[in-house]
C-alpha cells in the first residue's frame, strides 16, 4: 500500500491527462499520473508498417485547431499531407460500386456537404461556446445525420455519396450520429467546406504519439506510473483516495479523471457520479465498435484512391495515405461494426476488395478500440441530444475534475479538444488547491 500524498492524481495519460499534469506542474502542484496501458497517448497510437509511421488512433491535425497547433509549434514538428486521390470508388445509383475520377466525385460530395450545413451559422454563432444559442441548438440537436440527409431529398446517386461517410463517422449507422457533431466541426472550421475538409488531411511527420511524449517530458513535479489501471475513486470531501486494479492505494487532495467518457461506468466512484455522467457513459459518446486499420496494399492501378462503401459495408472506407516508391501504397481503413473479423487476413482482404477489387493486401496493422477495455470505443461522435446535455458532464464533482477529448467545447472528438479539456480541468483544480 502506498500512502504518499499528492496535490492531484491524474487518471489517464492521453493528451487530456498529460496536458492537465503539465499545467498543474507548471503551477508548482505535485501530481501522480496513473496510466493503465504500458504507453502514453491513449487514443493516439502510432505504429510502423512497411517502414513508415501509421496511426491506429488519432492522426489528422490542422492549424485551425488552436490547442494542438500550439503544441506543434512549441516542439517544431513537421506535417505531411495524405496522398491526393486520383480516383474514388463509391456505390452508384444502383448501389453497385462504381469508379469515378477523384476530383469530380469528391467535389460533388463536398457540394452535398455544403448543402447539409447551409445556414448553419445560426446554430453556432460562437463555435467555442456551442450553447450560446440554446433555442437554436434545441432545433437541431435532436436530429441524426440520417434525418438531415433524408430531408435534402437527394437523387439515389447523391445519397450514396453521403451514406458511407455519415454511417462511418457515426460508428456504423447514420441514425446514431448527431447532426451537430459534423455541424459543430463545420462551424469550428469557419463555416466553410475548406475549413471542414482540412481537418482530414495533415498528419505529424513524427507520429501523433511522439507529440504526447514530448509534452510528457515537459511535465514537472510529477510521477508517472504506467501499467496501473484505476479501479475505484473515493472522494470523502477532504481528500481523494484512488485504488488500482492491483490493490495499491494512493491519496491526493484532488483528482483529474481523463479516461474516455465510455470508461467512466467501469470505475467505481464514491460518491456515485450523478445520473448524466453514467447515462453518457452507458449511452456512449466514443463510437462503440471502432477498428482502425493501416494496410499495405498493391494493385493494378495508378496512384492513390479513396473508397467509401454503402451504409452497412464491412469496411466503411479506405483513405489514401502514402504511395511508396515501389508502387505499393499505405491506406487507412475503418471498420465500425462486427461485420468482419479483423484478425482474419482473408476477411480483411475480402472487405478491401469490396471497395477496390484490384487491391491485394500485403500486410496490415489494426487496433480494436471497441474491445480495448481502456477506451471502450473509438473517436467521440455524439448521438442526437447529447450536445444539449454535454455541459452537465463537464462539471467538476467535489474534488474531482473531468477532462476528455470526448466532451470539449471546441474540437470535441479531436486531439485539440483533449488538450483544451485538460487545460480547463487543470485550471479548476489549481483554483481549488489554492483556495484550501
Ligand atoms: C481510430 C481513431 C481515429 C481518430 N482520428 C482522429 C484524428 O484524425 N484527429 C484528431 O484530432 N483526433 C482523432 N481521434 C480522436 C483523438 O484520438 C482523441 O480525441 C484524443 O486522443 C483523446 O484524448 P484523451 O486524453 O481525451 O483520451 P485518451 O487518449 O483515450 O486517454 C485516456 C487515457 O486513460 C487511460 N485509462 C483508461 N482507463 C483507465 C483506468 N481505469 N486507469 C488508468 N488509466 C486509464 C487510457 O489508457 C488512456 O491512455 C481519433 C480517435 C480514434 C480512436
Automatic annotation (TrEMBL):
Give the coiled coil ranges.
Answer: none
One family name in Pfam for this protein = Amino_oxidase
All residue ranges annotated as the Amine oxidase domain in the record: 15-429
- Cofactor(s) needed for function: FAD
Does the record's keyword annotation contain Oxidoreductase? Answer: yes
Per UniProt, the keywords (alphabetical) are: Oxidoreductase
Query: What superkingdom heads the lineage?
Result: Bacteria
Homology family: Belongs to the flavin monoamine oxidase family.
Annotated protein name in UniProt: Flavin monoamine oxidase family protein
Q: What is the lineage of its organism?
A: Bacteria, Bacillati, Actinomycetota, Actinomycetes, Pseudonocardiales
